[in-house]
Amino acid sequence: DHNAVAKIQLRTDTAIAASVDRSPTAPTVNVLQLPDISQQTATISWTAQDPDGDATTSTVYYSPDGGSTWHALVQDTSETQVQFDPVTIPGGEVQFRIVTNDGFNQTTTLLPLITVPDHTPTAYINTPAGADFIEGDAVILKGYGDDTEDGTLPNENLYWFDASNQNIGTGPLLHVQLPPGQHTLTLQAVDSAGQYDTASVVVNEQLAPTPGTSTTPGDADSLWLMLAGLGLILLLIGGGFTFLILYFVLRWRNKPAPMRARRSAPQAGTNQAYQDAQGRWWMHDPLSKHWFLWNGSSWQPWQAPAARRIPPPNLRPPRSGSCLLVLMILVLLTILIFGGVFLARGGLIPGVTLPQVGAFNLQDLLKTGGLGLLLSVLGALALNGGLKAIRERRARVDFGDEDFSDIREVQGCRAVLHGIGQVGIGLALLIAGLALAALALFQQILPGLGF
């Protein structure tokens, strides 16, 4: 019990560093102004004096449940006045109290009960924030309701209405199909006391474009879009041939020198055997770090002649070229997907239109674009690993479970099958990521820049 404390001392190992004695008298409080809940800003003011001359601080609390719980409006203030918005106080019988102390002694002053009327909830519409849509596109409605007494309103207390006051759905998320024309859509949020608030948004549903025509008005704009689409198609074809030629030229330049043929490599256990230009077979043991030479019947440790201590020939495995191939696939898919989305946005692909979005939203851009970039990176990495496994016919596979990792190297057909599966997963992730990135570019970034 702090009331039984007479003195507080701060001690070191050998001395008293500081000491404070309890003053004999508690502070006195006189309430000057009670809160007027009918005003936009309510005020509570008081005077606090300590007969012993000690400095005083005050904390103001309110209780909406008859004193069972207390919530602080302001804490440990040296001021003698507090102002607050009555909307933040729940409706019902509310009591305030002022707790003033001088460091040891404190005085609690209860204010008379005040009746706070039940507050009206507030309805919010997140999307769309007013936008144009193409006939047949689903309009996505997102909203919520907030109330001082109830907090965030439950889904069943959110009602959507059209311009004719017909209920078209319930809940925070709704997909609706609208006929062409201008539509006023309204969200009604109702609290537990039956009070409600509404929020509205106006959307325009445009006629679907005729196949083969552009939704962009003006002959000059249509001609520009057609030329741009033709340029993208030519760029796609030319870029594909260029990268294919570059790929095969680099493969030809990196082709190893001719080697004497042998029907099959000698058995090297779990290690890889390599053949040099003279037809000799070599094996490298990663445990002993030694090279072994095949003498026709067995593997023999290799040592350079005493006169010339030179390392064995460079027998590193040939590069798989998977990085270049992944780069080619990435460029081709980027041109194809971004070009297709561009053509669809311009109405140059018959029967294909892009869904319109509302006002520029940075959060939606970060979600769509960020997810697209993440999936693209993961897809490229998976694609590179799969192509490398197919080219080298070697792959590292985890045979363990969620508690124990057991990574082993597999070769031959099993490695190729593993690589094919990895390539499939990589292509799926890469296509999905590039599609999301294209949508973020043409639906968020370019419209936000005014294009």
Main beta-sheet annotation: 5 strands, antiparallel
Roughly how many Å is the radius of gyration? 38 Å
H and E string: EEEEEEEEEEEEEEEEEEEHEEEEHHEEH
Q: If you average the pLDDT, what whole number results?
A: 78
| β-strand amount | 25-35%
Instruction: Outline the low-pLDDT stretches.
Output: 212-220, 257-263
The general outline is flat
Give the proportion of residues in helices. 25-40%
Helix tally? 4
N-C termini distance? 71 Å
Q: Name the structural class.
A: alpha+beta
Total E-strand runs: 25
SSE map:
Elements: E1 7-11, E2 16-21, E3 28-33, E4 42-49, E5 57-63, E6 71-77, E7 81-84, E8 92-101, E9 106-110, E10 114-116, E11 122-127, E12 132-134, E13 139-147, E14 151-152, E15 158-161, E16 167-170, E17 173-176, E18 181-190, E19 196-206, H1 219-253, E20 273-275, E21 281-285, E22 290-294, E23 299-301, H2 322-345, H3 362-392, E24 394-398, E25 407-411, H4 413-448
Parallel strand pairs: 12-19
Antiparallel strand pairs: 1-2, 3-4, 4-7, 5-6, 5-8, 8-9, 8-10, 11-13, 13-14, 13-17, 15-16, 15-18, 18-19, 20-21, 21-22, 22-23, 24-25
